[in-house]
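To: structure desk
From: M.T.
Subject: fold request, one chain
Message: Could you run this one when you get a chance? Sequence is below, nothing fancy, just the single chain.
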Amino acid sequence: MTADVPPLLSRNPADPADVLVRIPAPGARATADAVERARAAQPGWLDGGAAARSAALGAAADAIGAAADELAALAVREVGKPVTEARAEVARTVAIWRYYAQAPYEPVGTVHEPAAGAGLLLTRRRPHGVAGLITPWNFPFAIPSWKAAPALAVGNTVVLKPAPEATACALRLAELLHQALPAGVFTVVPGAAAEGEALVRNADAVSFTGSTAVGRAVTRAATERGVAAQAEMGGLNAAIVLPDADMGRAAAHIAAAVAGYAGQKCTATSRVIAVGAALDPLRQALAAALRSLPVGDPASADTVCGPLIDERARDRVAEASRGLSVLTGGAAPRHPGWYAAPTLVEHAEPGHPPLREEVFGPIAALLPADDLAHAVRITNAVPYGLVTSVHTADLDAVLHGLDRLDTGMIRVNAPSTGVDFHLPFGGTKDSSHGPREQGRAALEFYTSSRTYTLSTSRTG
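Reply: Done. Structure tokens follow.
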């Protein structure tokens, strides 16, 4: 470890004195070497065939499932995820690997009639080579898996650079996957910016999840190299509540989406738009719902809102509520870790943080709207467009009034949070760049299309 390169450090956000990882950063050269080893392993992984890849991904699911309790406890300790959510994430991770274990048998092309004469026209999708994955800390098992599993299924090898805050989770995931996958097929390179930049410079395809600023830099660098790139970035998600909604149910859904896992999800709700007469009853119901959410030790099964990932994240929540009318929350709970109380503010103007940037904490702004069309305009008036939740009993409003929402995902009478891993995931504007993740869309991203013309050699 050199004096000018800080070590990789991962702390328990509920108990900052508890250090899980303190290791030297491997550096750019080691990252490039990892890509070269993955590149050398890729032809054998592809040539092994669909049955071998399918069996390996199924074995990966088995290995993760066998370690489910251990992995959930590790997520609680390293990234502060409440244990109920941690267990659900591990279960979803197992399901992701099982889902993509069938993907090697999916069709990889089509056959077409030639325009004239005998022969065949074929399209066939082929892997890029080495997929470089850069992932955040908030879903330390699910996000690496929903990137890696489809990449591997179609014949790529993978190099993963996790967020430093989730280093222990990534290294343990790699140990489990190494039980199922051949050497060199899946590699974890711990690190920070230097390692991530080196991965983008060397991989044959790049998939990123993280901040908007870094995502733009990643996609720009990958595009300049001419390699496939996708980036999932920020969200400033809205919940629209119409007057006919079940206010208690809507408030419960929104409170969970605001403060579950301390709001540390790109799909968390940060703006709550009350249409017309919904404002007063929603104000009361939502403030009460947020106050009722248990805040505390993420290892407790009752906890909904655990700690923020670090001290800076906690301070951002306090700063975001400064100068606003606070309906509930605001003051930090009395816990030794990096905690913030679920917070609801109102009278926020467009320049205030909750309305212009992703705070990534348990805070939301309550906003009035005259009607549904006004609510849609408010929803769209931010640089992001990931997900919107709509709460109403009016099917006409859902079918005809929401076409102008400029978001990639719309959830009706459900929280903005929650991901169906077999469907495309992504947003518009600054929320996403490139093709969608998950489902069949992921299989297409990790491959490129080839067109073959097969002409007969006979002349008559």
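Reply (cont.): The longest strand covers residues 15-23. Let me know if you need anything else for the meeting.
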